[in-house]
Write a structure and sequence with these properties.
single chain, about 200 residues, alpha+beta, Structural Genomics Hypothetical 15.5 Kd Protein In mrcA-pckA Intergenic Region, Chain A, five-stranded antiparallel sheet, globular
């Protein structure tokens, strides 16, 4: 399935949570916190399959992934030591586009992904344009000098929570990964058991 580019307010209403961050989607959920459609208020309880699908869809839309990307990351997480679900969420949190977002250099993850794709950032001194790169402890991101002005009006306008595993310098336009994040540092909360059961089918 390709990346979603349709009405974002419908996604927040369908999943019943603040998944997409643009102002229109936030207002849509606040105004009508029920699923979209003529029968949104009268929908029946979801099956186990439906609950697992909903949790997977939350991850897909929140991080802006395709189903194939989620499956590939799930397989990678299963090969790591520890809880597969927690490993999966930590891998997602370490993506370049997510780190640019949580560091306050973009208002949404979609915007952060666009900045990376357009080559605004250096990773350890090397220009990158792939938003799915997973960073390691010690890696450093820096805005290219020619793109510094793009972030002038963005810094400080995004709602961000300080991350102890990141060192952010807005003046120098740099982000350094001090350590790998834990599951508690992840930006999205989902029912891990239901999602993993769904992905393991």
């Amino acid at each position: 399935m390709s990346r979603y580019i349709g009405p974002k307010g419908r996604i927040n209403r369908r999943l019943g949570d603040l998944i997409l961050e643009n102002s229109g989607a936030i207002k849509a959920l606040n105004r009508r916190p029920v699923p979209p459609g003529a029968h949104g208020q009268g929908r029946h309880k979801l099956s186990e399959y439906g609950e697992g699908l909903r949790e997977k869809q939350k991850v897909r839309y929140f991080y802006g992934l395709t189903d194939r990307q989620i499956r590939n990351l799930f397989q990678k997480a299963a090969q790591l030591k520890g809880n597969t679900g927690e490993n999966l969420m930590v891998l997602l949190e370490r993506r370049v586009d997510n780190i640019v977002r949580v560091a306050g250099f973009a208002r949404t993850r979609a915007q952060a992904r666009q900045f990376v794709t357009h080559g605004h950032w250096y990773l350890n001194g090397r220009r990158i344009d792939v938003p799915s790169i997973i960073l390691k402890a010690g890696d450093e991101l820096k805005v290219r000098s020619r793109n510094r002005n793009v972030y002038e009006n963005l810094i400080g306008t995004s709602e961000t929570t300080p991350r102890g595993w990141l060192e952010v310098n807005h003046a120098e336009r740099t982000i350094k990964v001090l350590a790998l994040p834990s599951f508690d540092d992840c930006s999205l909360r989902v029912d891990m058991n239901k999602m993993i059961e769904f992905l393991a089918r």
